[in-house]
């Protein structure tokens, strides 16, 4: 992928965005372009719709060699990156106890290894005052029954982001994470269809644009961590400190989640989704 056009007549600050073809990514592209940025839209097939101020980039994040060669192209073209927004993610609900190991490396690769590798390779291109944003998940705090690998990858990503922030503080690069609960995107629908946790429905799912707006805000005014909805974030943080209490109130939460799921599905059926 040649990137020379970004340095020969540059222009807008450049943001590298992964998961650009996804539900949240698509909304993010619109917001970032409207905010005066140029978006390097990473997706598996590089098939984000062509538009001004967007450069589609094909890169399969489950393949470290592809990440290396794509970032090498950016390095050779000396494209300065004002920000890196990690939004790609994948969930394959699977109850532990079976020997189906296929989803393990796929989820860990996209959700955890790729953001780490991409950040390392991008950092030489990120100037002082640059930004790194991770679209994490409430699963980084709430252990999700039936999605233990996804949960492990998001717990790991939170740890990486918090350590990274300390490493980059002397360079003036800010690191932020947003932790959404359920978001109404293709990922949530796949998760429901494949037996994902009803804890997703403790509150009504956010819209993808709610999360895109938070990322846009974090680029302007960085903050270490933001939870959406904030009420779920407070509950999750308190419960994480007291796993015993968490286990005690879990049946109540599951009951509430099941009710929320039924309500969400009824809404979807009504809307003909
Ligand atoms: N939806 C939710 O309920 C929810 C809740 C909490 C957190 N999140 C997080 O929000 C982020 C965005 O998710 P979303 O809801 O927008 O889901 P989505 O619509 O399924 O989008 C996910 C994106 O990740 C990309 N991706 C998956 N595997 C990839 C790979 N091997 N290489 C490159 N890209 C890959 C997908 O690319 P393709 O288009 O090529 O498939 C897609 O663009 C994820 O990190 C997710 O964990 C979502």
TrEMBL record:
Organism of derivation: Acetobacter cibinongensis
PANTHER family according to UniProt: DEHYDROGENASE/REDUCTASE SDR FAMILY MEMBER 7B, DEHYDROGENASE_REDUCTASE SDR FAMILY MEMBER 7B
A Gene Ontology term for the protein's cellular component: membrane
Segments forming domain Ketoreductase: 13-186
One Gene Ontology term of the molecular function aspect: oxidoreductase activity
Protein name: Alcohol dehydrogenase short chain
Recorded family membership: Belongs to the short-chain dehydrogenases/reductases (SDR) family.
Keywords: Oxidoreductase
PROSITE patterns assigned: ADH_SHORT (PS00061)
Signal sequence range: none
């Amino acid at each position: 992928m040649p990137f020379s056009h970004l340095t020969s007549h540059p222009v807008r600050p450049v943001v590298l965005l992964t998961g650009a073809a996804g539900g949240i990514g698509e909304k993010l592209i619109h917001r970032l372009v409207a905010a005066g940025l140029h978006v390097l839209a990473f997706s598996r097939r590089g098939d984000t719709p062509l538009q001004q101020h967007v450069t589609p980039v094909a890169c399969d994040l489950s393949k470290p060699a592809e990440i290396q060669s794509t970032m090498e192209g950016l390095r050779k073209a000396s494209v300065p990156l004002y920000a890196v927004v990690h939004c790609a993610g994948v969930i394959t609900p699977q109850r532990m106890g079976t020997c189906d190991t296929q989803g393990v490396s796929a989820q860990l690769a996209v959700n955890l290894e790729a953001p780490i590798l991409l950040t390392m390779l991008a950092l030489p291109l990120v100037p002082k005052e640059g930004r790194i944003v991770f679209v994490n998940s409430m699963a980084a705090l709430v252990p999700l029954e039936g999605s233990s690998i996804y949960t492990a990858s998001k717990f790991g990503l939170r740890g990486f982001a918090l350590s990274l922030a300390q490493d980059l503080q002397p360079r003036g690069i800010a690191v932020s994470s947003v932790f959404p609960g359920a978001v109404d995107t293709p990922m949530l629908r796949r998760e429901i269809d494949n037996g994902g946790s009803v804890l997703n429905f403790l509150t009504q799912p956010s819209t993808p644009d709610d999360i895109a707006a938070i990322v846009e805000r974090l680029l302007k005014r960085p903050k270490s961590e933001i939870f959406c909805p904030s009420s779920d974030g407070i509950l999750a943080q308190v419960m994480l400190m007291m796993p015993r209490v968490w286990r005690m109130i879990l049946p109540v939460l599951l009951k509430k989640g099941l009710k929320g799921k039924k309500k969400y599905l009824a809404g979807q059926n009504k809307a003909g989704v």
